[in-house]
Amino acid sequence: MMIDLRSDTVTKPTPAMREAMRNAKVGDDVYGEDPTVNRLERRAAEIFGKEAALFVPTGSMGNTLGVKLHTQHGQEILCEAKSHVMNYELAMAGWFAGCLCRTVAAGNGILTWDMVCKHIKPLSPHWAPTGLISLENTHNMAGGTVTPKAVLDEICDGAHALGVPVHLDGARVFNAATALGIPVRELTAKVDTVMFCLSKGLGAPVGSMLTGTRDAMDRARLYRKRLGGGMRQAGVLAAPGLIALEEMPARLGEDHANARLLADGVAAIPGLTIEPGRTQTNIVIFDTAGTGLTGAAFAAALGERGVLCNAVSERGVRFVTHYDVSRAACEAAIGACAEAAQAAPALR
Ligand SMILES: *Cc1c(COP(=O)(O)O)cnc(C)c1O
User: Fold this and answer.
1) Cα dihedral sign for 219, 220, 226, 231?
2) Whose CA is nearest to atom 2 of ligand 1?
3) Which domains does the chain have, with CATH numbers?
4) Do 112 and 155 meet the contact criterion of CB atoms below 8 Å apart?
5) pTM of the model
6) For a pocket test of ligand 1, which of 140, 227, 283, 312 has the largest count of ligand atoms closer than 8 A to its C-beta?
7) In terms of C-beta density within 10 A (0-12 exposed, 13-18 middle, 19 or more buried), how is residue 183 classed?
8) 195: CA distance to ligand 1 center in Å?
9) What is the pLDDT along the chain (348 residues), one digit of tens a residue?
10) Cα–Cα distances in Å, from 42 out to 33, 49, 53, 84?
11) Ligand 1 centroid vs 167 CA: distance in angstroms?
């Protein structure tokens, strides 16, 4: 069997999730009548300490709604240069909200108030005003790095003082909270809206949530409908989502420990390098330059040895741990890395 480290999105629903899907009470959610969706939205709001939440089919739609809610056409959104909103959502900020992404590069993916404050612009005849700051925690393409609560709070305080709202792309915010050892509601207390994925490390087959004020979620519901996201008997999807939300965060520490194991294993292999301290959660990004192989070629070599992963840059390969890969599988993946590196032209 292949060891699938491509993403935590590949997790399959657990037997308990399958059972919950079978037994889910459903209704028409466009009428607000699906009891399971309603329960999921209530629980998500409670867990995040926000007034309300909205079930959305994907994290990308959650971010799209978050951007739209806070902005007007012709504004700028400040986001990190390698962020998902900027790079992997097909320019939705421009397409749906009519906004330009103004990127700020933070090598480790962690934006600070010092970095963003100089880019906040008021209305003027020369430049577009800043409508929103969009943050990402954990930061996927920086290797799952964690923005600490104090750093997030300082950005929110600074932005709010200038009348600028803050959206959090928290696709993996439970991983961030786990790494920090605090509840998500504490970590995201000052953020205006939070999107998080049920379908990644939490293991649900489908779905993400947007949380925020009641008024914002009422408006987001209409935008979701405009985007074709009005789902009917969605309780069959919300039921595994509830299990993901209630039961799965507690086990994310295991994924983090497995990622550490992978990072340490990879660091010890000649030809592969990894930035020390970068692996804080369930993502490991390493550099293949010393093997003479591109990231894509190295990923292909791993594929031949039973390990699936993604190249994320010219020399970068990413592993993502999740509940469908055991510690033993991670040890086997390290073995495959050692073999692939040894067979590489630069080291042969
Ligand atoms: C996965 C992900 C999303 C949302 O992805 P979907 O595939 O649309 O659910 C958003 N932000 C980040 C950082 C992600 O990793």
Assistant:
1) negative
2) 171
3) 3-8+251-347 (3.90.1150.10), 11-248 (3.40.640.10)
4) yes
5) 0.97
6) 140
7) middle
8) 9
9) 899 999 999 999 999 999 999 999 999 999 999 999 999 999 999 999 999 999 999 999 999 999 999 999 999 999 999 999 999 999 999 999 999 999 999 999 999 999 999 999 888 899 999 999 999 999 999 999 999 999 999 999 999 999 999 999 999 999 999 999 999 999 999 999 999 999 999 999 999 999 999 999 999 999 999 999 999 999 999 999 999 999 999 999 999 999 999 999 999 999 999 998 899 999 999 999 999 999 999 999 999 999 999 999 999 999 999 999 999 999 999 999 999 999 998 877
10) 13, 10, 7, 27
11) 14
Q: Is the minimum distance from the CB of 57 to ligand 1 under 6 angstroms?
A: no
- DSSP states of 103-155 as a string? EE--TTS---HHHHHTT-----SSSPPEEEEEEESSBTTTTSB---HHHHHHH
* Residue type present at position 244: A
Residue nearest atom 4 in ligand 1 by C-alpha distance: 59
Dihedral sign (CA 90, 91, 93, 94):
negative
From 7, 85, 169, mutation site for ligand 1 pocket: most ligand atoms within 8 A of C-beta: 169
Is the CB of 64 inside a 6 Å radius of any atom of ligand 1?
no
Edge-to-edge strand ranges of the sheet holding 316-320:
283-287, 316-320, 310-311
Query: In angstroms, rounded to a whole number, what is the distance separating the alpha carbons of residues 276 and 141?
Result: 16
Buried b (16+ CB within 10 A) or exposed e, 241-263: bbbbbeebbeebebbbebbbbbb
Cα(343) to ligand 1 centroid in Å equals 34
